[in-house]
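Dear support,

I submitted the protein below through the web form. The confirmation email said the job was done, but the results page showed an empty box. After a refresh the structure appeared. I'm attaching both so you can tell me whether what I see now is the final result or a partial one.
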Amino acid sequence: MAKFSSKEKIRGVRRYLEGTEGGKTIAKSIGVHSSMLYQWIRQYESSGENAFKKRYKPYSSQYRLVVLHYMNEQRTSIRETAWFSTFRLMKHLGSGK
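What the results page shows now:
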């Protein structure tokens, strides 16, 4: 399945909201299933353009080093380490220094 940028999603939604084209026609022209387009429309109607903004922030280099240090110190796997929340992991390592 193709990924669509925020701009592409908004463009498709606006085409639909203009009322000159049907949802199935728009969906087919941009290469997405009509149910996905209708989902975008609902998201747009409830949250506006903010619905399509990325909500995550990449982890900093410092945080990544903390995680690797924890994994090495505790001999945990990636899966085991993932169970720890950021707060608990940072607190644990912060107290050891």
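Response: this is the final, complete result; the empty box was a page-load delay. The chain has two domains: 6-52, 61-95.
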